[in-house]
Amino acid sequence: MSTSPSQLVAGIDTSTQSVKVVVRDAETGALVRSGSAAHPNQTQVDPRVWWDALQVAIERAGGLDGVVALSVGGQQHGMVTLDEDGNPVRPAMLWNDSSSGRQARELVAELGAERWARETGTVPVASITATKLRWLAENEPENAERVAAVCLPHDYLTWRLRGSSDLTELTTDRSDASGTGYFDGRTGEYLPGLLEHAFGRADVVLPRVAGIREAVGSSAGLGLDALVGPGTGDNAGAALAMGLGPGDVLLSVGTSGVVSAIVAEQPADATGLVAGFCDATGNYLPLVATVNCAQVLDATRELLGVDHAGLAELALAAPAGSNGLSLVPYLHGERTPNLPEAMGALHGVTHLSYTRECLARAAFEAVVCGLGVGLDAVRALGLEVASLRLVGGAAKSPALREVAPSVLGHDILLPAPGEYVANGVARQAAWVLAAQADAAADLPEWPELGGSPTEVATAPAAPVVREQYDRAAPLHLDRS
């Protein structure tokens, strides 16, 4: 790569809870500075708060002086609706808003899971944009009529960064488009028939799908002349940061639990467990997501009156299998399996298992079993697992580092902590910069991001945990 060491690139992550900014050297990937700013952690949010939070995050990062290219990564699926003047019609419905669970079921019933999987790679669940559009048409018809354009969170920030007010200048990338429910990742084209079926109309502006290393404009919205990259969805951004290749599986334990991997052909899983998303490099990113992850640990910690270290200490004092106790952790319904109305349950309660220690360990085991369900689904599509990487806030816990290899029966690589999504799109920005000199430039090598993990977590396999969990998981109640 021929860029000068003095050239800087920036990556922006607009997540469920905050906006983060990292500034890195374009050639080496070395971190120069960073900053973040929180915004409302809700399932429906006015998208303008993301823009406001971005200004604060940039200031806390020491500004963008010297930055010549930047790119945005964002939470997938969220429905951002804009009127003809470019103003939000209503608060954005985020990926974790389950209001459209009924609409998702109806869309699948109307066209069949096989068709959805074949044409889009994904069987609709409540997180998918198309289901939210159906909900909007049914529940807020006046707002639905005002919609002139539909985009995703990272699309909205990219558009604002460019200082545009022209809806036809909205852009997205193939990874985020592949999570809408009306995009064919194999052809790179939208499917207006599916959009109209879901929303009742297809005469809305959809973001143009940019190339994987395309500069979509400049950052005039910030008063800068930096190139703006296509951006990407959060999971694809994290994969860029990790440098994932075929057979590498990424396990993410944050607000949601995610299992993702890189493959060359788009999977089509009619069971709906595996979403056949696109990645940010021209490959595909089969992905399984669970709604209940780190908040299961938080809720258990609060119940037991301990901090994170205390929860881990309690869990490590109990044996694998928690003396038969199994927690089904459907605190907020669930996406995988697709049970938006489900409530959780506690099974195997005996005098021996009904202890603080066993409950703490059962919470960690429940989170990992959810990831295990996802890993099994990806394997069922033919993926040969070469490595497992564990990232996310909860990955710091010593209890999770013991429970994960124990339950999954596989050593776990532990990359150094970092802002993976922001780092991934910063790497994309460097790719966009390199493509100005060479249109076929390869993704730059950044050893600081893609180097070997600093630790490996290992533990004796304990298949009894999954056996208990698999018996307990179907035995839950529904909110209805």
List keywords for this structure.
480 residues; 16 helices; 26 strands
Question: What report would you give on this structure?
Answer:
This protein is α+β, with helices and mostly antiparallel strands. Helices cover 34% and strands 20% of the residues. The protein contains 16 helices and 26 strands. Strands 1, 2, 3, 5, 13, 14 and 15 form a seven-stranded mixed β-sheet that branches. Helix 9 packs across helix 14 (420-435) and helix 10 (294-304) packs antiparallel against helix 12.
Radius of gyration: 22 Å
- Cα distance spanning the termini: 57 Å
**How many helix segments?**
16
Tertiary shape: globular
Round the mean pLDDT to the nearest integer and report it. 94
Instruction: Tell me the fraction of residues in β-strands, as a range.
Output: 15-25%
Give me the count of strands: 26
Strand count, sense and barrel status of the largest sheet are: 7 strands, mixed
Q: Which secondary-structure class do the elements indicate?
A: alpha+beta
Helix content: 25-40%
Low-confidence stretches: none
